[in-house]
Write a structure and sequence with these properties.
alpha/beta; Rossmann fold; 5-stranded parallel beta sheet; 4-stranded parallel beta sheet
Length: about 290
Amino acid sequence: MSDRPHRRALVAGGLATGLAGLALGASAAPSPKLAGKPRRVVSLNPCLDVILVEVADRSQIAALSHYAREDYGSTIAALAKTLPFTYETAEEVIALQPDLVLTGRHSSLATRNALDRLGIPAALFGVPDTVADSLAQVREIAALVGYPERGEALVARIEAALAAAAPRPGTPKLSTLVFMPGGFASGPGTLMDEMMQRAGLENAAAKYGLKRSMDVPLEFVIADPPDLLMAGEPFPGAPTWRTRVMTHPALSHIAAQMKRATFPERLLFCGGPVLIQTAAALSSARETALAISR
């Protein structure tokens, strides 16, 4: 069984993360003091990659993380394949001679320690728990690379997408479960939970007793199905645990009680500009499910 999407979710630490209290807000440490715009920026985290490519000049990007190139899990795979990348080793990063490295708590500790010993400026970011935290990361990265106005423009695009995805007054609220790789769902206090609320969806994870991001037993879903069940596309190759659950015959017995929709798993991992697509996907699923119910 392939658990690659699940491993990537843990590494990326975006919308769904919070499994062990790892979320640390918009920034996990004070930003380094830079003398002017950095000329060579390396990102070691896929969720920082998606922000960096939006706010930096292409010539500034010395490398992205290798995760950014994954067609299945990245929203910027096509662009990332045209840029250099690393596997986070200290040797790779040091050889690139960066004057700024963007790292996350899931980035290699050995690499982070090596950068510190060599005095290479590095900015350490936590996992955003809220939309406000995510927007703060956008602004901070844009300021670090020397283009704060690009950060503000991206924030404006994200806020416009959130406003467009909001339900009209009086729209019924659907109980919704967003099923993630490995059988997890995001509970209260996560970025995904806030995104669902903003899209007019009631997070069914709460009624199953989830705290943060936790496993959802299939028995719970069958005993008390949500109005809408959202899950990603089947992962290429061997079926994942999530795929097997989503095709379990038991779900056919509650088909009349529960609408289903696709939620691309690449939208589960990160905030920042990915929130634009996340908002649209949640809104579209809501409207489709309500139309079927009428």
